[in-house]
Every structure is written in structure tokens, then in C-alpha cells.
Amino acid sequence: MRTEHLRYFVEVSKCRSISIAAEKLFLTQPAISSAMKTLEKEFEVMLFKRSKNEVTLTEIGTKFLAQAEKILEDEAELYTLINKYQTKENHSNDTILYGSLSISVALLLSYSFFQDAIYDFCDKNPLINLTLNHDAATHIPNNILLNNSDIGLSILEKNALYTLQNDTTIHLRELYNEKAYVIAHKKFGFRNKKSINLQSICEFPIAQTSLFPVAQYFSKELEGKVNLILQSSSLELVKKFVIKAKAITVLTSMALDIFHDTPDVDIIPASDLENGVVCLFYKKDSSNLALLQAFEQTILEHC
Predict the structure, then answer these.
(1) What is the tens place of the pLDDT at every residue in 217-259?
(2) How far apart are CA 270 and CA 253, in angstroms?
(3) CATH of 3-89, one of 1.20.120.1560, 1.25.40.10, 2.60.40.1580, 1.10.10.10
(4) pTM over 0.90
């Protein structure tokens, strides 16, 4: 049994889709499908019920998931132990980092790799004081440019990305592309769609997180036609509207995990919404440059 196969299994279980899991893992769909079949053949059990549009766990698959997550947690703890030992043995003379670091982060990123990265950074650098400022993705570049925060993590659209790329005072690191998805209860009848465009959903009731304001992506011809019944900073509230079939929503893939325990929803790629780019950026002349570079390295290890 290979632990990476367990990792793929956990991701497929959360996404209830091999194709979405493949996108999040930056692998091909056939590679994920082959790994799942290998696991089932090795243990001689059926872990998933497969349908045209989704995969769901069988009874043994649910129990298998709990054990797989435990194995992966144990593996992570083992690597942490070894890394701490190697750091102590090989880098005992390294400069100890200390000071304060202010980070502006798009709240949606808190539902992905970011929490683990923050914990790891604090664990490695106990003398550093961190301040996290959660904000809408579109506000974060200005927070850095105006020196309201030392470093920013956000999802940038094409124009914002282009602006920062051409600002010679900014160090910009593009991490990965983030895709948008429509999430709807099965009662809305989207289950046979492989993708969906925003124009086709504008008249449906939409509950949207203010951290990802989808209404701004509709064309000007559709202004006033978008049936936005709720806009909230609470993802849990948006989720409740969706699972109660009161509204649909649009989210990026990093926030899909909040729907991993809701079998009655469809998750469909948005075909006409440009991918945002998850980026890290800070000013090159910052007095906290050593801390910023150390934090950037931790982010690269986790994303």
C-alpha cells in the first residue's frame, strides 16, 4: 500500500469527484482512477459507489476513510519529528528569527493549505509574533502597497495580477491557478452538466460569500437580472442555504471542502469564469525581509 494512494483516496472522498480531485492534486484523472482501483484490488473491497456524475463512499469506504486519515496524520507527525531532528543536528548555528510579521490573507485561503502553513511556521519560529488580517481578496494588494501589512496572500484576477507584475517595488510569487465551481442542491437539476456558464444561472436564487463576490463577474447586460438573495462573509451560512435547496452558490476549489459531507449537492465547473491565480507578494524593500522570505518558504512547502 502506497501512502500517496491514501492521500488521493481522501481527496476523492472529500470532492466526491475523481476529476475535481485530480485538479486539486495537479494530477491526471486516469492516474487518480488507477490509484483508486489499485486500492480496491489490494484490499478486495469496493470503496466507492460510482455514478455518471459523482462517486460516493460505500459503508466500508467510510470506515476506510477514517483509518486512511489517521495513517496520513501519523505519517505527517513522523516527518515533523525527523525534520525537527535534522534541523537541530544540521542547522544548530542558523540565525534565530524573531520580530513581528503582519499578514493579509483572503479568507477563502483559510480553508486550504494556509492553516497548516501558519502552524508550521510558528512551530519552527516560536519567537516571531504573527498578526493575521483576513480581508476580501480584492483588498489585499492595497494593504501591501499602503504598508498596512507586511505580506499578502490572495486570489488575483488578470488585471490585478498584471498590475503587481509590473510594479518593480513588489516581489510576487504565483503559487497556483484557482478554479471556480457552481454548487447546487440536486433539486435544481444540474447533475447531468459537465460544466455550466454564469449566464445560465443568473436567474436562480444565489447565496454568495462576500469574500468571492460572483455578481461582479456577470456581464453588464445581465446587471439587475442576477437573483442574489444573500451575500454574507459566513461560508457556513451560505452552505446552509445550499444544502436546504434555497439557493445555489459559486466558490473556488479551495472552499469546496466545506461541502465534503453533503451528498445531495452537485459541484460543477464554471466554464466562463476566468481562473484566479493564488499569489504571495510583499515589498522588496521591507525591513522584515528575512522573516518574509522564511514565511514564503514555508508557504511553498505546503501549497
Answers:
(1) 554 555 567 788 888 878 889 999 999 999 999 887 777 778 8
(2) 11
(3) 1.10.10.10
(4) no
